[in-house]
Design brief:
This protein is mainly α. The protein folds into 2 domains: 124 residues, no CATH class; 103 residues, no CATH class. The protein is built from 10 helices and no strands. The radius of gyration is 48 Å and the shape is rod-shaped. 19% of the residues are buried.
Amino acid sequence: MVATALFVAAVLNNAPISVHLSVVVGVAGAGLGYWLWRRQAHLMATAVHTGGLIGAGTLSLAATESIGGPTAVLMLASVITAGGLLGTRGALASIFALAVAIPTGFTWPSELRSILGFSTEPYVVPEYIVIVFVITSIPSWAAYVVAIDASNRTAWLNAQTAANELTEVNQQLAIANQQLHFRHTLLERAIQQQAAVARLGVYAAGSSSTADVAVRASRLVSRLCGTDEPVVLVVGDEQGCSTLLKNISAEHRPFARAIVQLVQAHSQRNFATQAVSQPSGDALPAPVKRD
């Protein structure tokens, strides 16, 4: 918008052809930067825009030997553009370039004008050029700042949405990991319990007494069922065993029931063995041998 207004003002006021060319070059540079930006070449597009502003500001300083008016606007615009689009790196790069351009324009203004084919005397910018430049720059830079702010807000909202989604996914993963860990713990405990039942069965198959088997079974139930208090299995106490099974949590109850049944089976086997080994009270007395 600024370049178009300056071009129209230059044509209406019969400005030198160099003014027309500078405006055309500015429009071409803006178009190139926009084309690069649309193709995601953000660094190159910003370099074109910022470089063009710094170059225009340096030419204005050399031609007018004044850092005010259009020169100041161009140089400030270069810092705003670089910082707004590239952040700290862009702003520092623009500041460094201006730190070189400003002393150069002040130190060798006549030499620069001679190289560029300008007049040997400083160029006085017509007031209409300054007015058009400043008036059109105000809404242009306002639109630029609003666009940058909207872009930053959109990026922040997208980042916030992505962060919320990532947090939700992490929470779901944490829950899944907890469930997996819980299942793994149950599996390990089930394996331990099965092995404990097998070892107790081997122990009970030996010559151990029912009391020893009950003591070992009590220790296994206390250790592998996570009971708050030590478990004591009393042989023959059916009511106590039933109460014990009710007080144990559901996931450990099959193991505890297997242990209790094993102890009861050992007790019944020992009882049957003792009954067979003892003579019956109803047996007939041995016959008496007579001479």
